[in-house]
Amino acid sequence: MSNNNSQDTVRITRVDGEAADLPLYHGTYGTPCIDVRGMPRDIDCFTYDPGYATTASCSSSITYIDGEQGVLLYRGYPIEQLAEHSSYLEVCYLLMYGELPTIRQMHWFRNRIRYHSMVHEALRRFYEGFRHDAHPMAIMETTTSALSAFYHDKIDINDPEHREICAHRLIAKMPSMASYAYKYSIGQPFMYPDNDLGFVENFLRMMFAVPAEEYRPNPVFVRALEMILILHADHEQNASTSTVRLVSSSGANPFASVAAGIASLWGPAHGGANEAVINMLEEITQSDATVEDFIERAKDKSDPFKLMGFGHRVYKNYDPRAKLIRQACHDLLNELGEDNENQPLFEAAMELERIALEDEYFVERKLYPNVDFYSGIMLRAMGIPLNMFTVIFAIARTVGWIAHWNEMMDDPELRIGRPRQLYTGPERRDYVDIGER
Ligand code: ACO
After folding, report:
1. Span 261-279, mean pLDDT?
2. Nearest-5° angle of CA 264, CA 58, CA 269?
3. Which is nearest to 284 in space by CA: 303, 268, 305, 300?
């Protein structure tokens, strides 16, 4: 194939001379995209791209990542500014509606989310059906999916008002459902939401309060968690968001689609990495092996071990979220005092980072710490149990999934997601009776 680039079209020519002139699209920023939809018609070819590493599956105006420069923008606003000045709910509004809210809009939005914070009483009884040691992500998948059985009154996906109510319900109920998954696992009573509290305070209260005692969330933890939620709120077409888009492209309801997003997020190559990082750091601090030994293992192709929290499909530079989280983690641990039990993990993480960033293997492959590398240490320092880390990620990412779902539903180019394949199986053959095989 050869390329003959003009400003708005690209000519793709097969070696046999057949050619297709394909439109070239330029977004606000980023690599331009060739519209390959005419290829099967013009030159009888599909594109082959396992993992969709070079395929734009849609156009989107929500989030922009420049992986080479380490830039992340939500609706044009740099993540650093939002992390410093904004709140999670304000970021939710921004991602959903495209603009930062006025005071009045923020007041309205906060009330909408508060209004939907409780879950149906019958859904609360679902939790009793799980083993006490079930992973909370497994519970989250199930209970999120079950929401469609409880809230089918407003589930017409073609009605913008219904879509908005579904979106508010999902954002509002996710912390309640997450805290129930935790409370059930430790045998404590579920706490109802307290709608006088902010989103993060409310979640911490539902997680850690008991009916017998007064509970006041630590403001340092509130701010730290607020930042973690902001940083995880969206990340354009990642695996779980693409899953939500694919599932809902068939017209599936948003609760089912977000449940599928949760399933995708749980994988250790995606959101499950924050849990895996802590397991790795604990292994490092508790074993006799040195940090260098672990780096060597990560480089050894015959060893399945990878440096968890390192590497990213899009970032070929320091993940800007990791930069912010590293500093926030440092500040949080300082606040808790030098002798807190998480300090050794933080020090091991920094040592790992320092050695990896000087190592040829990591430098050559442009492998840098990602958002999960330090977030787990922060969550651990706040007393969040390990198996709830990815759940917190799911709470944060719900708005991203919802914003993409909404954008997709309004997209005139929406078609059911249906990739092609390169068939490599057997050629046509005839059935042989079982006794004759
Ligand atoms: N440790 C060691 N080597 C690595 C790592 C790592 N963490 N990440 C990538 N590599 C190596 C690969 O083995 C590959 O080497 P090769 O070229 O010699 O074959 C090369 O770097 C390129 O990596 P790919 O796997 O092709 O990159 P891909 O974009 O497919 O995967 C991913 C990205 C899944 C994030 C990967 O880097 C990884 O598994 N990292 C660890 C898990 C992790 O931290 N996940 C969180 C991602 S961020 C998020 O979801 C919030």
Report:
1. 93
2. 25
3. 305
What does the DSSP 8-state code read for residue 52?
Answer: G
235 is catalytic: no
Q: Is residue 254 within 8 Å of 248, Cβ to Cβ?
A: yes
Angle at CA of residue 262, ends 260 and 264, nearest 5° = 75
3-class SS of residue 322: helix
What pLDDT, in 10s, does the model give residues 254-269? Answer: 999 999 999 999 999 9
pLDDT at 7 over 80: no
Residue 270: CB within 6 Å of ligand 1? yes
In the residue annotation, 288 being an active-site residue is answered as no
71 beta partners: 66
Question: According to the model, what pLDDT value does residue 378 have?
Answer: 94
SS3 content of the chain, % helix, strand, coil (to 5): 55, 5, 40
- Region 170-198: what's the mean pLDDT? 96
Q: For a pocket test of ligand 1, which of 301, 370, 373 has the largest count of ligand atoms closer than 8 A to its C-beta? A: 370
- Per DSSP, 269 falls in state T
CA of 294 from ligand 1 middle (Å) equals 15
Q: Can you tell me the distance from the alpha carbon of 297 to that of 372, in angstroms, rounded to the nearest whole number?
A: 20
Instruction: Tell me the β-bridge partners of 73.
Output: 64, 78
Residue of 77, 117, 71, 108 whose CA lies nearest to 94: 77
pLDDT of residue 80: 97
Element housing 20 (H / E): strand 19-25
Answer whether 139 contacts ligand 1 (Cβ < 6 A). Answer: no
pLDDT digits (tens, 9 = 90+) for 406-429: 999 999 999 999 999 999 999 999
Q: How far, in Å, is the centroid of ligand 1 from the Cα of 357? A: 15
Helix ranges (H only) for 337-416 are 343-358, 360-364, 372-381, 389-409
Residue ID of nearest Cα to ligand 1 atom 11: 365
Record the pTM.
0.93
133, with CB counted inside 10 A (0-12, 13-18, 19+), is exposed
